[in-house]
Amino acid sequence: MTTIQRQHFGEHQGQAVSLFTLSNANGMRLCVTDYGCIITQLWVPDRHGQAEDIVMGFDNLAAYQAGHPFFGAIAGRCANRIAGGRFKIDGQEYVLAANELPTGQHLHGGLRGFDKYVWQAQEDGDGIIFSRISADGEEGYPGSLSVRHRIGLTEDNVMTLGFEAETDRPTLVNLVNHSHYNLRGHTHLIHDQQLKIEADFITPVDETTMLPTGEIRRVAGTAFDFRHARRLGDAMRHRPAQDFDMNYVLKPGDGTLHPAASLICPHSGRVMEVHTSLPGVQFYNAFKLSNKIWHGKAGHRYQAFSGICLETQAFPDSIHHAHFGNVVLRPGEKYRSRTEHRFSTVA
C-alpha cells in the first residue's frame, strides 16, 4: 500500500508550504510540494533494485522561488506558447504577457502561472489532490477557473497525473506537468538513453518564434523520427544545435489512454512508458539549460542535455489553428486529462 508523509517545506508569501512523500513497497518514492504542484524527487529502482532520483530539481523551496525552467512544475492556465500573447474567444480579444523574451510569445501561463502559487492539498488514497481557484483576469485569462490536479503513485510503479477544471466564462485550458527526466539519475546526461515516440506526425515550428506554422508534417525522413527507439545522442547529431523542442501528434486512442512515448536507459535498465488521454506530447531535450548556471540537488550543476521533458498536452497555440483541436473551455463543460508514467526494468 502506498504511504504518504507530509512535512514542512517552507513559506511562500505568508503561506505554509508542505512537501509530501509518497512511497510504495517496491522502493519507489515520489516527493511533491503544494507550491506549484512541483515534483521535486522521483526515486525509481534499477535492474538491481538500487533506486536513483530521476528528475531534476532543487533541495529547498527558496531555489524554486528564485525562478527555474519549470523543473517538475505544473504549467498553466494554458501551457506552451500563444502567439504574441493575444487570442480571441467569441470575438473578444484578450491580452496576456509575452513572457518568453527570446521569442516574444506567451509561455506556460505568463509571468505568474500556476507554478508560482501555493495550492490546497488533500490526501486521496494513493495520491494527493491539489486544488485552487484561478481568479477571473489572472494573467489576463478570462473566467474564474476551478482546478484540481491529482498526483499519485500506485503499488505497481505507476505515477499518475490527472487534471480537472471548470470555468464560469469561456477561457483557454491546457494543463501540463513539466518534469525533466533522466533514467540514469539526475546527475547524468541523456545521450545513451533510447527514446520512442508513438507519432507519425509533428506540428513544425518557425525556428525564430517557436510557434507552429499550422502544418502537420510526417516525421519520416526527418531528424524528428522516433517511431522506432533511437539513441538520443545519435538523434541529436542530426539537429544543427542538437536541439529538440517539438510537439508530436499522437496516434488516436480509444478515448481513454493511448501510448505516447517510452524511454529506456541501457545503463540502469530503467524503462518509463508514458500513456495519456491527450492528443500531443512535447519532446524537449533541455538544450537551453546551459544558457544559465543552474545548481540543482546536492549542488550538482545542470547543463544542456541533463534530462528530457515529455509534456502531454493539447497542441501549442491551438487557439490560432482551428484544425489543431479545441482548447476553449466553456461554462457547463469539464476539462479532464490523465497521464500515466509506468516504470519497469529490462535486463
TrEMBL record:
Record-listed beta-D-galactose binding positions: 80-81, 245
Taxonomic superkingdom: Bacteria
Pathway(s) this gene product operates in, as recorded in its UniProt entry: Carbohydrate metabolism; hexose metabolism
Gene Ontology molecular function: aldose 1-epimerase activity; carbohydrate binding
Pfam families: Aldose_epim (PF01263)
Active site residues according to the UniProt entry: 178, 311
UniProt-listed SUPFAM superfamilies: Galactose mutarotase-like
GO cellular component, one term: cytoplasm
Record keywords: Carbohydrate metabolism, Isomerase
UniProt record, GO biological process: galactose catabolic process via UDP-galactose, Leloir pathway; glucose metabolic process
EC nos: 5.1.3.3
Catalytic function, reaction form: alpha-D-glucose = beta-D-glucose
Gene3D superfamilies per UniProt: 2.70.98.10
UniProt family annotation: Belongs to the aldose epimerase family.
Cross-referenced PANTHER family: ALDOSE-1-EPIMERASE, GALACTOSE MUTAROTASE
Protein name in UniProt: Aldose 1-epimerase
Origin species: Chania multitudinisentens RB-25
The organism's taxonomic lineage, starting at the top: Bacteria, Pseudomonadati, Pseudomonadota, Gammaproteobacteria, Enterobacterales
